[in-house]
Write a structure and sequence with these properties.
Blueprint lengths: L1 H8 L7 E2 L2 H4 L16 E3 L4 H14 L3 E4 L18 E4 L6 E5 L4 E5 L4 H10 L2 E2 L12 H7 L6 H4 L2 H4 E7 L5 E4 L12 H5 L8 E8 L1 E2 L3 E9 L2 H15 L3 E8 H10 L13 E9 L3 H17 L5 E4 L3 H21 L6 E3 L5 H15 L4 E7 L4 E7 L6 H22 L15 H8 L1 H14 L14
Parallel strand pairs: 2-4, 3-4
Antiparallel strand pairs: 1-2, 5-6, 6-10, 7-11, 8-9, 8-10, 12-14, 12-15, 13-14, 13-17, 16-18, 17-18
Helix pairs in contact: 9-11, 10-12, 13-14, 15-16
The structure holds flavin-adenine dinucleotide (FAD), (2R)-2-hydroxypentanedioic acid and zinc ion.
């Protein structure tokens, strides 16, 4: 390994090869503090050429590499294993926004650009880059692409995959594939771009991307509404889809229990709806017409919802600051859970037609088998994406509870997901957390195809091994 480290020095300046514990440690534990690994070194390349050279050295020396962006992922994908033989390749120095093409409505960015920096750069030129999630101040576009991240605008603009037109990728051989074309149509055989998106660093290292931009909406209205049942929230969604069509840009659900937890840790994030109802829904409409037009439409739909008894209360944000407060309340649930202690996350999608029965039955089963647990259920209802998280009963040690109950709780929830023909990972990916569960979930044929692809693209198994699939 000494030889490998010496070879690395021919590629990177000493200060970009971290080998001392105090320098490496910030890169070795994930955001949730769920995984901690060891690494031979943490390397910080600046260019795709440097990444390619590093990968060639990894291939020669049989050293596995764990690509890393902001390390905000929830499935341990960017954390190395405990062997101390892997390297972490963090892309944060590759943070140049290379170009905004105004006519083509695209932005070309390097993998280490922070998501929020891309949003801000786009906005400065009157464009919207619609990918938006709670970690946007620290996650990086390479990580977003590698996990095919979702977030709060998927309902209108799609997930990261839908926003990407082209990629630059370093392969397991250390070659650079330049697929940085900003084309909206390109049927030239297999779609390599889509293969790398969502592959969580197991098939190649994304070094740059061409992403779509949209006109910046000029009017936006945000409202919080109260509902008594799951079925009301889904009927309400359908009503908004019918009446507001493409103006509907956000539809997020939060249960009473989720917002109780928020209030406990962040009293300033208390629900403005009276009595914190069973279900609070955050709805956003955006448009390019006047504010008055959108406001009128929103009020009309809300009136119809009241008349149909779908909602029991509503509050419309009167200015941007209030709208931001509503969104912060939604986004703070993850932070409140982190404050409360380690929790069990289930990032799932369920067809909307099966959502009511899923929640009813799963809640009942979970409460019967694990008395006292708290079900922190919230998420992107417009996409059928729930964050069906489980927190231990109050007063119980979280780590001890999770150690004993993690497996049976995951099994119970995932069995329910299968029953409803849902997905065990809607937007957070697989990483190491769901590696075991994936075979059963995908089925033998799909799982074997995934392994075939992994073997073909990374025969030495040096790119993020034992994440997503094991070969
Ligand atoms: P990392 O965590 O560093 O890496 C994630 C995976 O991608 C790893 O497997 C890693 O090896 C791989 N990878 C990273 N960079 C590259 C690269 N350049 N090339 C190849 N592989 C790479 N996720 C959502 O989908 N929706 C949400 O609403 C959402 N909200 C969040 C809110 C909070 C508060 C937090 C902490 C996280 C949230 N996440 C959400 C999860 C996380 O932010 C996303 O998964 C994000 O896309 C990860 O980006 P990252 O740069 O942190 O990637
Ligand atoms: C969100 O939607 C994120 O806020 C985080 O995907 C979900 O904390 C979670 O489980
Ligand atoms: Zn989410």
């Amino acid at each position: 390994m000494q030889i490998f480290l010496e070879q690395l020095h021919q590629v990177l300046d000493q200060k970009y090869i971290l080998t001392e514990d105090q320098d490496k440690n910030p890169y070795l534990t994930d955001w949730r503090k769920r995984y901690t690994g060891k690494a031979l070194a943490v390397v910080l390349p600046r260019t795709a050429q440097e990444v390619a050279q590093i990968i060639r050295l990894c291939a020669i020396n049989q050293v596995a590499v764990v690509p890393q962006g902001g390390h905000t992922g929830f499935c341990g994908g960017a954390t190395p294993d405990s062997s101390g033989k892997q390297i972490v390749l963090n892309l944060k120095r590759m943070n140049t926004i290379r170009e905004i093409d105004v006519a083509n409505q695209t932005i070309t960015v390097e993998a280490g650009c922070i998501l929020q920096a891309i949003q801000e750069k786009a906005a400065a030129q009157d464009f919207l880059f619609p990918l938006s999630l709670g970690a946007e101040g620290s996650c990086m576009i390479g990580g977003n692409l590698a996990t095919n991240a979702g977030g709060t605008n998927v309902l209108r603009y799609g997930n990261t995959r839908d926003l990407c037109l082209g990629l630059e990728v370093v392969t397991a051989k250390g070659e650079i594939w330049n697929g940085l074309k900003g084309l909206r149509k390109d049927n030239t055989g297999y779609d390599l771009r889509d293969l790398f998106i969502g592959s969580e660093g197991t098939l190649g290292i994304i070094t740059a991307a061409v992403m779509k931009l949209y006109p910046l909406p000029i009017s936006q209205w945000t409202t919080l509404v109260a509902a008594d049942s799951v079925v009301s929230t889904i009927t309400l969604l359908n009503l908004f889809q019918k009446r507001a069509t493409s103006l509907l840009t956000g539809f997020e659900m939060m249960t009473q229990e989720s917002l109780d937890l928020n209030e406990k840790h962040f009293p300033q994030m208390a629900n403005p709806l009276k009595g914190n109802p069973p279900y609070t829904v955050l709805i956003e409409l955006s448009d390019h017409e006047s504010e008055a037009h959108v406001r009128q439409l929103l009020e009309t739909i809300l009136e119809e919802a009241f008349e149909a008894s779908l909602i029991t209360d509503a509050v419309i944000a009167n200015n941007l600051a209030q709208a931001n407060t509503f969104w912060h309340m939604r986004e703070h649930i993850t932070l409140a859970q982190a404050e409360e202690g380690a929790n069990l996350k289930h990032d799932i999608t369920i067809p909307l037609s099966a959502l009511e029965s899923f929640i009813e039955e799963t809640d009942a089963l979970v409460r019967a088998k694990f008395p006292g647990v708290r079900i922190i259920n919230f998420g992107h209802l417009g996409d059928g994406n729930l964050h069906y998280n489980i927190a231990p009963p109050i007063g119980v040690d979280h780590k001890a509870f999770n150690l004993t109950n993690e497996k049976p709780i995951h099994e119970l929830v995932y069995a329910q997901v299968e029953r409803c023909q849902g997905s065990i990972s809607a937007e957070h990916g697989v990483g190491q957390l769901k590696l075991e569960g994936l075979r059963a979930h995908k089925g033998e044929v799909a799982h074997e195809l995934m392994k075939t692809l992994k073997r073909a693209l990374d025969p030495q198994n040096i790119l993020n091994p034992h994440k997503v699939v094991s070969i």
